[in-house]
Design brief:
The chain is of the alpha/beta class. The chain has 4 helices and 5 strands. The protein has a 5-stranded parallel sheet with strand order 3-2-1-4-5, with helices on both faces.
Length: about 130
């Protein structure tokens, strides 16, 4: 089974990616962040909108439980700069085939001519965001 691991920076299944999306509310991954009930509620609805199965608990243990019921062949997620997620993805890649999509939000079409101001960057990407 292919899983698409959604988290707060990756709350939508990209087009062309096949798999079963999951979202896990894991308090250990959000340590140091103050999350209001509105943020938690928003993430819940975004995960539901993405068609994800929603769990609560330790991410690694939940993935092991899912794997025991239905073997995981691949986990797809998005790369991040956050150390807590980088450590998790490293730990997961020891046990599973983990594909980390590039951080598409920071990608630019022409990386040799980056935007000098944020509004230039925003004008380039907002068409694709359907904002």
């Amino acid at each position: 089974m292919n899983l698409i691991f959604l988290y707060d920076e990756f709350m939508r299944v990209p087009l062309g990616i096949e798999g079963n999306p999951i979202y896990i509310f894991d308090n250990t991954l959000s340590e140091g962040y103050e999350l209001s009930e509105k943020i938690i509620e928003n993430r819940y609805f975004l995960a539901k909108e993405a068609g994800a199965e929603i769990y609560q608990g330790n991410t690694y243990e939940i993935l092991q439980e899912i794997h025991s019921q239905n073997p995981i062949s691949k986990i797809t997620t998005k790369a991040t700069f956050r150390p807590v997620y980088q450590e998790l993805f490293q730990k997961l890649s020891d046990a599973y085939d983990v594909e980390q999509l590039p951080d598409y939000f920071l990608l630019q079409d022409n990386y040799l001519h980056p935007a000098k101001r944020f509004f230039q960057y925003w004008n380039k990407i907002k068409k694709n965001l359907k904002y």
